[in-house]
Design brief:
- The structure holds 2 protein chains of 2 kinds.
- Chain A folds into 2 domains: 139 residues, Response regulator (Rossmann fold, 3-Layer(aba) Sandwich); 133 residues, 3-Layer(aba) Sandwich (Rossmann fold), CATH 3.40.50.2300.
- Chain A is 47% helix and 20% strand.
- The longest helix of chain A has 23 residues.
- Chain A is elongated, with a radius of gyration of 23 Å.
- Chain B is mainly α.
- Chain B has a single domain, classed as ABC transporter involved in vitamin B12 uptake, BtuC.
- In chain B, the strands form 2 sheets. A two-stranded antiparallel ribbon of chain B has the order 1-2. A two-stranded antiparallel sheet of chain B has the order 3-4.
- In chain B, α3 packs across α12, α4 runs antiparallel to α5 and α5 runs antiparallel to α6.
- The longest helix of chain B is centred in the last third of the chain and has 25 residues.
- The interface between A and B is large, with 45 and 45 residues.
- Chain A: This is Sugar ABC transporter solute-binding protein.
- Chain A: It is found in: Cell envelope.
- Chain A: Keywords: Signal.
């Protein structure tokens, strides 16, 4: 009886091991029939933006005739990304696309890539590298500008409150380059009579943003907060619900960055006031840059992708056109 | 006569001082005092016509504490059998995803709630079966479920953060997380009722004692006629079910599931709440009231972080420091410190007297 149970446990664990191993070795390397192999160190499912971005890159590289090996991480785990990156270097792929979860900690891996003469293209999130050898590996950064998005938010607030106003900023998790850049963009452009009462992190989460915003609205009731700059849509939607519950809908302007369908709908409904797009559709540009570089052409160091801004009217138009992919 | 009364009073004070619950409540009051110093109207309550309930910092804190109450209650039962359930956070995400996805696919709201609860119960049953029937380590079993759960949630929503806020007829679910009963947050009331029901079930029947017996020694409990396998299965199933309710609270609050963020790290919060409540991680003894206070304290610490405006970088450290201070306050060694010092002094005096 006991042995029988042990056998079941053994079989079950063996099955689990095999399936894990199978995940690890899925279709990496091997540039057959002259197709160039490109490794994509990705973030994986995280939200509408990420899904749209990664699907677009995947299909663009397929159209451009590359063999793209997609390697997502889980729950923003950088360790898994570094492992995937090193594996691509060992497999000697022709190029690596890196969409990093964190901006630091890439020096060693990039150095290895530089030694193996594998070009690295960072997309969406930039990485900060100290080592000179490691820097050589990065050919180009492709993506919309986070600083620009932050600047747009500041300019919207400047324009709407020429006489000054108080408000909050909801930040993403501490230590991400996105958070830093969106914050820098904001402080570059914001007018001196606009006062940020407090910046709090809500970890990109709708649910947390609601809790944080409710707390901040209580705390600064007497200061008459008039704007909330949420560094992404998800947090903005949470903030909107807290504002609504406090009976301040329409009195507090909420500005968000990303431009997902949900946010645009909320913009039309009057829950949000301004949405700055962070355009995820740049697979074509990325594939072109990789192709140019591998063909020996010169590639720009920083390829900026254009994004749009939305108010209620243009959001309605975009939704009616059904042109949003995410 | 008067001396006797005084003695009794002293005994009562001593009993209170050595009780974990007292110190938890002291810690809670301290946190409230700190918040009130920083924000003078922290305790102020006002009536909000918009939501039909009371409003104020304490109310939002209670609203948030509901989910911690649920997972801490389940975790208490599991831990008192000397096990652990690391999967509660992921179960929250799976249950929330199930509810939001079925709602936005046009399923009736009550059916969606039922589906979410059943999904949580099912995962709890799988945990229970693996632990009780196959005798796998609870830590490993639930760790696997914690990793798998996020995957399941992503499969359910196909990797998206499903938003059901615009779905018609979602009011009942919305009310669970945002509504009010007699001015008090509905989710808090529901959570407290469930905690009381579980408490009655444990303490008014032999169930609680059986759970503790299994936690002390499975083999011995089997010999006294308890069926440890059944008890083990039951506690994991209950934990999964309660985690599903917590998942509904967390997602219904914004009518949106975030497959990565919903319930993230909450298994740790649940364990902290249980430990603050005075339940031993070695099993064999539990206090549901203690865990409930622990759960409210967790919510209060999070509120304190917002009220004090602590930097995003420093919040985990602040959280850790507060929890450690509470645990130190509760440590029996600290309570006995006075007596210990007295004893040492007496010993020294004695040694001196002998030397003289």
């Amino acid at each position: 009886m006991k042995n029988w149970k042990k056998a079941i446990a053994l079989v079950a664990s063996a099955a689990a091991l095999v399936s894990v191993a199978a995940c690890g070795s899925s279709s990496a390397g091997g540039s057959n029939d002259g197709k160039k192999t490109v490794g994509f160190v990705a973030v994986g499912p995280e939200g509408g933006f990420r899904t749209a971005n990664e699907n677009d890159i995947k299909s663009a590289f397929k159209d451009a005739g590359f063999d793209l090996v997609y390697s997502p991480t889980q729950n923003n785990d950088q360790q898994k990304q570094i492992q995937a990156f090193n594996k691509f270097v060992n497999d000697e792929v022709d190029a690596i696309i890196l969409s990093s979860t964190e901006d630091s900690g890439w020096d060693d891996s990039l150095k290895k890539a530089a030694e193996a003469e594998i070009p690295v293209f960072t997309v969406d999130r930039n990485v900060s590298v100290k080592d000179a050898d490691a820097k050589k590996a990065i050919v180009s950064h492709i993506g919309p500008s986070n600083e620009w998005a932050g600047q747009q938010a500041a300019e919207f607030v400047n324009k709407n409150f020429p006489d000054g106003a108080n408000g909050f900023i909801l930040e993403g998790p501490a230590g991400l380059s996105v958070v830093k850049d969106r914050g820098t963009g904001w402080s570059d452009k914001v007018a001196s009579n606009i006062k940020v009462l407090e910046s709090q992190s809500a970890n990109w989460s709708t649910d947390e943003a609601k809790t944080v915003t409710a707390g901040l609205l209580d705390k600064y009731k007497s200061e008459n907060p008039q704007f909330i700059f949420a560094q992404n849509d998800e947090m903005g939607l949470g903030a909107a619900q807290a504002v609504d519950a406090a009976g301040l809908k329409g009195k507090v302007k909420i500005i968000t960055i990303d431009g997902t369908k949900n946010a645009l709908q909320a913009l039309v409904d009057g829950d949000l006031s301004y949405v700055i797009e962070y355009n995820p559709i740049f697979g074509k540009e990325t594939a072109q840059a990789v192709k140019d570089y591998l063909d020996g052409k010169k590639v720009e160091k920083d390829i900026q992708i254009e994004s749009k801004t939305f108010d209620a009217a243009s959001a309605k138009e975009a939704l009616d056109n059904n042109s949003r992919a995410y | 006569m008067a001396e006797k009364a005084k003695e009794e009073g002293n005994a009562l004070v001593k009993k209170l001082l050595s009780n974990n619950l007292t110190w938890s409540i002291v810690a809670f009051i301290l946190l409230v005092v700190i918040c009130t110093i920083f924000q003078h109207d922290f305790l102020a309550l006002s009536w909000n016509d918009n939501t039909g309930g009371l409003a104020g910092p304490l109310i939002t804190m209670l609203q948030e504490s509901a989910r911690y109450l649920m997972i801490a209650t389940g975790m208490t039962l599991v831990i008192s059998t000397a096990g652990i359930d690391l999967s509660v956070g992921s179960v929250m995400a799976v249950a929330g995803a199930a509810a939001m996805q079925s709602l936005s696919n046009g399923v009736n709201v009550w059916v969606s709630i039922l589906i979410a609860l059943l999904v949580g119960l099912a995962i709890g049953c799988v945990n229970g079966a693996l632990v009780s029937l196959l005798g796998l380590q609870p830590f490993i079993t639930t760790l696997i479920m914690m990793l798998a759960g996020r995957g399941i949630a992503k499969v359910i929503t196909s990797g998206e953060n499903t938003d059901a806020s615009a779905v018609a007829g979602n009011e009942p679910l919305k009310w669970f997380a945002n509504g009010f009963i007699l001015g008090i947050p509905a989710n808090f009331v529901i959570a407290v009722v469930i905690v009381i029901l579980v408490g009655l079930l444990c303490r008014k029947t032999a169930m609680g004692m059986m759970i503790e017996a299994v936690g002390i020694n499975q083999e011995a409990s089997r010999m006294t006629g308890i069926k440890p396998k059944k008890i083990l299965f039951l506690v994991y199933a209950v934990s999964g079910f309660l985690a599903a309710i917590a998942g509904l609270f967390a997602t219904a609050s914004v009518m949106r599931v975030d497959v990565v963020k919903t319930g993230q790290d909450l298994e740790m919060y649940a364990i902290l709440a249980v430990v603050i409540g005075g339940t031993s991680l070695l099993g064999g003894k539990f206090s549901l009231a203690g865990s409930a206070v622990g759960a409210v304290i967790i919510a209060m610490i999070r509120k304190t972080i917002i009220t004090l405006g602590i930097n995003a970088e420093a919040t985990p450290a602040f959280f850790a420091v507060v929890v450690i201070v509470i645990c130190v306050m509760q440590a029996p060694k600290i309570h006995n410190l006075g007596a210990e010092m007295k004893r040492k002094r007496a010993l020294k005096a004695q040694a001196k007297a002998v030397a003289a």
